[in-house]
Amino acid sequence: MRAQPAASHFVDGAYLEDTAGAPIDVVYPATGEVIARLHEATPAVIERALASARDAQREWAARMPVERARILRRASDIMRERNRALSELETLDTGKPLQETLVADATSGADALEYFAGLAPTVTGETIPLGRDFVYTIREPLGVCVGIGAWNYPTQIACWKGAPALALGNAMIFKPSEVTPLSALKVAEILIEAGLPAGLFNVVQGRGAVGGALISDPRVAKVSLTGSVETGKKVYATAAAGMRHVTMELGGKSPLIVFDDADIEDAVGGAILGNFYSSGQVCSNGTRVFVQKGIKERFLARLKERTQAVRMGDPLDETIQMGPLVSEAQLEKVLHYVETGRKEGARLVTGGGRGTGNAGFYLEPTVFADVTDDMTIAREEIFGPVMAVLDFEGEEEVVTRANETEFGLSAGVFTRDLTRAHRVISRLEAGSCWINAYNLAPVEAPFGGVKLSGVGRENSKAAIEHYSQVKSVYVGMGPVEAPY
Ligand code: NAD
């Protein structure tokens, strides 16, 4: 098997196997070939992961922040040096084209390691003067954190959670998605090679029940999930039972609003990036594209032309721009939405088919026009390359319609009128927004959603709040005046 790792798990500084766990077959989405066979974590593996993380965390938290930073910085350098090999593995694991994985996965993971390495030594408390007395605060790590990943960006998700956790003195136990379990093991290997003490970044494999077992353990202080809203509700409820900290990065059905004064070429580019990158399997995608009536036909004509030029095929071929979906189950789900779009009366502008000559889980980039707010494809998260184009007349109307969703992850506006851009963005109920751009998520910017799309923020200085807690210390400087 061409991507078989040394063992299923990485615990306490080394690969670890326990074949008593249920098997997990890893499938290359471009061909359907099984490329690795792993095993779910057994209770014994979970126990070792928790015990080693707990032991290692105390010593790690006591280190100088600059020492922790140095290790993370070294890991980011190793990651960049190995970008090609890591990208090839990511492509095998996810089916995303190498053209993308070379610039968006290990590189984004390395950015997170580098950024949080830089931030670690800057984290301080404050002093609050109270006349004679004073209070000082200390930012302390939470302890053992659990990260649970989705399958669309396995390396990036492992690093977006692992880097801030480690920088602030925590341990991280990461459970990748069972659909894409390979890359996180490489992240663990690299961290150890960079000098991270054993036990601080453990990777355990498994389906939902393994995630559930991890977060119900009293030794765990926090869980950060990237996944669907449905899973988020379950994980949040389990975390609540133990009063644990949570970060929830969940799904979306985000609006991308194109006003008639927009640069059409840029707006079409934004809509393409926000719907077809990674075969549309991106949580923040702007899948409801509201186009003002005056430019509708011009926008659609150019969108069709550019979409039909997309080169779909073997993701390991660097000239290929679009690969398959991650799994057969995901393909079936998305095909069902395409069928529903047709049945409910949306106009298919392009795509909708499987493409020819491809054995894997491929679906052509698909555009529906004349979509109305009540249609299923305008309401539910599809998580595939299916764009819904809706018409609108005025600003007030489009803001109201854009907000009529339970989700609130992202939103975008294309217009040359900057006053309008800021006014509209300020009224949209979403956590991560763009003006005249879409889907760029640099580590320097906070990322996360509102409403059902989640709680908490990843990346940026905001992540400090989510991987540490404040201790406040009152210092009495005079005699204690007790009333009796
Ligand atoms: P999913 O919800 O099916 O699974 C996510 C993870 O949760 C997996 O590792 C899974 O094993 C685990 N899990 C499932 N049930 C669990 C339980 N009861 N307890 C603990 N863990 C459990 O999501 P997916 O299909 O892997 O990913 C797609 C979804 O993720 C989409 O909805 C997408 O929008 C969302 N997503 C969000 C972001 C973001 O940052 N907001 C990023 C990527 C993906």
Description:
This protein is an alpha/beta fold and 484 residues long. It has helices at 43-61, 65-81, 83-94, 98-104, 106-119, 154-167, 183-193, 208-215, 229-241, 264-276, 296-308, 328-343, 376-379, 395-403, 418-427, 462-466; strands at residues 9-11, 14-16, 23-27, 34-39, 127-130, 133-141, 144-148, 171-175, 201-203, 220-226, 245-249, 255-258, 288-292, 347-350, 366-369, 386-392, 410-414, 432-435, 454-455, 468-475. It has a seven-stranded mixed sheet, sandwiched between helices. The longest helix is centred in the first third of the chain and has 19 residues, at 43-61. It is globular and about 75 Å long. Bound molecules: nicotinamide-adenine-dinucleotide. The site of nicotinamide-adenine-dinucleotide has 28 residues, from helix 8 and helix 9.
DSSP summary, beta strand count: 20
Number of helices: 16
Largest sheet: 7 strands, mixed
Query: Which strand order spans the largest sheet, edge to edge or round the barrel?
Result: 14-15-16-13-12-17-18
Which percent range fits the helix content?
Answer: 25-40%
Ligands bound to this protein structure: nicotinamide-adenine-dinucleotide
- Unreliable spans are none
**Mean pLDDT reading:** 98
Shape: globular
Radius of gyration over C-alpha positions, nearest whole angstrom = 24 Å
Terminal CA distance reads: 77 Å
Strand content: 15-25%
Query: By helix and strand content, what is the structural category?
Result: alpha/beta
Indicate the topology.
Blueprint: E1 9-11, E2 14-16, E3 23-27, E4 34-39, H1 43-61, H2 65-81, H3 83-94, H4 98-104, H5 106-119, E5 127-130, E6 133-141, E7 144-148, H6 154-167, E8 171-175, H7 183-193, E9 201-203, H8 208-215, E10 220-226, H9 229-241, E11 245-249, E12 255-258, H10 264-276, E13 288-292, H11 296-308, H12 328-343, E14 347-350, E15 366-369, H13 376-379, E16 386-392, H14 395-403, E17 410-414, H15 418-427, E18 432-435, E19 454-455, H16 462-466, E20 468-475
Parallel strand pairs: 7-8, 7-10, 8-9, 10-11, 12-13, 12-17, 13-16, 15-16, 17-18
Antiparallel strand pairs: 1-2, 3-4, 5-6, 6-20, 11-19, 14-15
Helix pairs in contact: 2-5, 2-7, 3-4, 4-5, 5-6, 10-11
The structure holds nicotinamide-adenine-dinucleotide.
Nicotinamide-adenine-dinucleotide (NAD) binds next to helix 8 and helix 9.
